[in-house]
Amino acid sequence: MNIVYVFIGGGLGSLLRYGIGQLLSKTGLQLPLGTLVANISACVIFALSLAYFSDRLATQPHLKWFILTGVCGGLSTFSTFSAETFELFRQGQNLWALVNIGLNIVLCLIIFYVWAKPESL
User: Fold this and answer.
1) Fewer Cβ atoms within 10 A, N terminus or C terminus of the chain?
2) Domain span including residue 109
């Protein structure tokens, strides 16, 4: 049954990622803002779920499969982040590529540091 929770959550996360990408596709920035917002959003959902629902996630594993693996897995995207960063380097936009790397990694780590309970990680 876990596969169904992952499937539904992953579909929802992927649709959210698509919507965020569409909303932010016309910013005109060199920075791939849609992917950054999707990754940060997934980290916020993941960290807050750990912080506020860690007891329920432990006793109701279907929530873990739906929220953490499904929604957050479908919403976040390391592969797109990597491809977009590589493309920035390829285009000679080295500063934007480094900014993209820094923002994605540092902001997501800060989110977990600030919101997730250390014992829930």
Assistant:
1) N
2) 2-120
